[in-house]
Amino acid sequence: MIRGTVHIETEICKGCELCIAACPQDSLALSSNINRKGYRYVELVQDNCTGCVNCALVCPDSAITVFRQSKSAVRKIVSASV
Amino acid sequence: MNTITIPDEMELVYSKPETITDTPLHYCPGCTHGVIHRVLMEVVNEMGIAEQTVGVAPVGCSVFAYNYMNIDMQEAAHGRASAVATGIRRVLPEKYVFSYQGDGDLAAIGTAETIHSVNRGENILIVFVNNGIYGMTGGQMAPTTLLGMVTSTTPFGREQSAMGYPIKMTDLVAQLPGAYYVTRQAAYTAATVRKLKKAIEKAFQFQTRKKGTCFIEVVSNCPSGWKMTPIEANDWLEKNMLPMYPLGDLKVPKE
User: Are A67 and B223 in contact (CB < 8 Å)?
Assistant: First the structure.
């Protein structure tokens, strides 16, 4: 499975939970901590992110940056397993 | 912009465009204004036309749009954004000009300006954000409010006998000969955001043809005005707003 990860700008996250609903892998959840504005922010709670970008597309505050395994890294893993 | 280090063996697949400033948005949690701002600016950034684009901000929730979009912006009087955009486009015919308006702005006080701008076939893009309510002033009834919808000025629901029917501005505008590309989109799921981006891309490309006005309605939510959580608001939007305002192209240029 292609692996990905997200970086969440916790200070501008307003905890609207739209990304949680959009995530097909259930990788995101609300944190029990709050940010400087008093919102519970979103964090990555599982290691099964695929970097599908759905969360970043629906985020109204552009708080999410998405990364995905680079092709060279995938090739390395595939060649090692063969 | 804050620097984010890319994790080992990963590559960047999505980040906010350079044409969006780092200013935190003042919108309520879950409001799709932020999504629409970002999608517009992504298109401007990807087409490389940030230097040639002028936006017109309206009065309403998105009155501070000029703080968030890192391009040339102009603030217009309530409802007059399309008239101001007309002026800018006529004086600077090589620029890409868009106006960004809400339903209280475009469909109520600015009805005349909107209809006549489109009827004249001005080469501008009008982005119409329709959430069926006056969000900024406290959730009063707007012309686009659905029948039976509860707002702060219609506490028992909108009644046809006293307040009339919701107005479908996009359908009205699509009949005018000056309209070149008219479409209705939404921004509440990842799929609809992708479609919205394609529509905005097309609309910016059509502007160079100088054939008429491009008009994009975006069916939007208002969690605070509707008194719902953002997720409930999006469900409500899908069940109630979309049957009244069905998504899709209303007028596409031939060829």
Answer: no
Which residue on chain A is closest to B232 by alpha carbon? A18
Say yes or no for a CB contact (<8 Å) between A65 and B25.
no
Per-residue pLDDT reduced to its tens digit, B170-186: 999 999 999 999 999 99
- Residue B66: phi, psi to the nearest 5? -65, -20
A62 contacts B14? CB cut-off 8 A: no
The CATH architecture to which A4-81 belongs is: 2-Layer Sandwich (3.30)
Give me the domains of chain B, ranges plus CATH numbers. 33-251 (3.40.50.970)
- Strand B96-102 versus strand A40-44 pairing type: unpaired
**Tokens read off for A20:** 């949680």
Q: pLDDT tens digit string along A22-53?
A: 999 999 999 999 999 999 999 999 989 999 99
Nearest residue, CB atoms, B11 vs list A58, A64, A67: A67
What residues of chain B lie within 8 A of the CB of A56, using their CB?
Answer: 14-15
Radius of gyration for the alpha carbons in chain A, expressed in angstroms and rounded: 14
Which token pair is B196?
């919205």
Confidence of residue B2 (pLDDT cuts 50, 70, 90): low
| Measured distance CA(A59)–CA(B4) in Å, rounded | 18
ipTM value of the model?
0.90
